[in-house]
UniProtKB/TrEMBL annotation:
GO molecular function: ATP binding; ATP hydrolysis activity
CDD domains registered for this protein in UniProt: AAA (cd00009)
SMART domains in alphabetical order: AAA
InterPro entries for this protein: AAA+_ATPase, ATPase_dyneun-rel_AAA, CbbQ/NirQ/NorQ/GpvN, P-loop_NTPase
Domain annotation AAA+ ATPase: ranges: 40-206
Protein name as annotated: MoxR-like ATPase
Gene3D superfamilies: P-loop containing nucleotide triphosphate hydrolases
Transmembrane parts of this sequence: none
PANTHER family linked: MAGNESIUM-CHELATASE SUBUNIT CHLD, MOXR FAMILY PROTEIN
Length: 309
């Protein structure tokens, strides 16, 4: 079993309890795959719609383990210089000039400037080197935003937790970090990368679970209002929007309702706070079209809300 004395968990149940202590409400399957990722020293690939809590999972695991979170935010064009490392050229030039003034031999000088001291550590290398003292949580966030070429860069890291630098050699982690990759599934990720990972799909929560999440994160929100928000969001997600609101939007909305001293949802409150849950003009227009349909409004206000008040 890995871990320090204050971060160890010896069962799925103990991990689940630690996550609950951090106000994170995992289902059994997610707690299980997190436990296995930690125990088996395997990267974990989390996939799901935006806003369901994939990134938060990594942050919470770092808190549970009492270690640092190292995050690599992926984007199109991400390359080795920004993901792995690059040389600190200004510092190398300065070292060369100082060496020349001191009469250092050029051959020796050429060797000294290509050492770890002159490396700018990007997230992947930082995670490898940090793991020598205490294994961090490495979050490779939204990998589907990156190019296929970047996936190839990850293969060595995820296979052996090591990075090869021509001028230095291979830097290898003494203890493997917990690696969590996330994807919104905007494109398919290559099988070679997925084979190196455990996999879990995070879906939108059930209304009951979403109510628990809201109540855990914001105890000041009443149970009734938390359930109203959860039920409303569930119905909203069944509609065709550019971006369906996730749990993050539910929490934002609940916080806004609390700030406005609203104790229940009504038509005026919903209309006034739509910007908390729908973030595209097209989605707002779509909502207003739906709202003007008697059946939709009846479902949202009567079936979902009024019976809870």
């Amino acid at each position: 079993m890995r871990g320090t004395e204050n971060s160890m968990f010896d069962s799925i149940e103990s991990l689940q309890q630690r996550l609950l202590n951090e106000k994170y409400i995992p289902d059994r399957s997610l707690a299980t795959v997190l436990y296995l990722a930690w125990t088996l020293k395997k990267p974990l690939f989390l996939e799901g719609e935006p806003g369901v809590g994939k990134t938060e999972t990594a942050a919470v695991m770092a808190r549970v383990l009492g270690t640092e979170l190292i995050r690599l935010q992926c984007y199109e064009g991400l390359d080795a210089n920004h993901a792995l490392y690059e040389w600190n050229y200004p510092r190398q030039i300065l070292a060369i000039k100082l060496g020349e003034q001191c009469g250092t031999e050029k051959e020796l000088l050429g060797k000294t400037i290509f050492t770890e001291e002159f490396l700018i550590k990007r997230p992947l290398l930082e995670a490898i080197l940090s793991a020598r003292d205490k294994e961090p949580v490495l979050l490779i966030d939204e990998i589907d935003r990156s190019d296929e070429e970047f996936e190839a860069l990850l293969l060595e890291v995820l296979s052996d937790f090591q990075i090869s630098i021509p001028e230095i050699g291979t830097l290898k982690a003494v203890r493997k970090p917990l690696v969590i990759l996330t994807s919104n599934r905007t494109r398919d990720i290559h099988d070679a990368l997925k084979r190196r990972c455990l996999y879990h799909w995070i879906d939108y929560p059930t209304p009951q679970k979403e109510r628990e999440i809201i109540s855990a994160r914001m105890p000041a929100v009443s149970e009734s209002l938390a359930l109203q928000v959860a039920l409303f969001m569930q119905r909203l997600r069944s509609q065709d929007f550019l971006k369906r609101p996730g749990v993050a939007e539910s929490l934002d909305w609940a916080a806004a309702l609390l700030a406005l001293d609203r104790t229940s949802l009504d038509e005026e409150t919903i209309q006034e706070t739509l910007g908390c849950i729908l973030k595209y003009r097209e989605d707002l227009m779509r909502f207003h079209e739906l709202w003007n349909e008697t059946g939709f409004r009846q479902t949202m206000l009567t079936d979902v809300l009024e019976k809870l008040c």
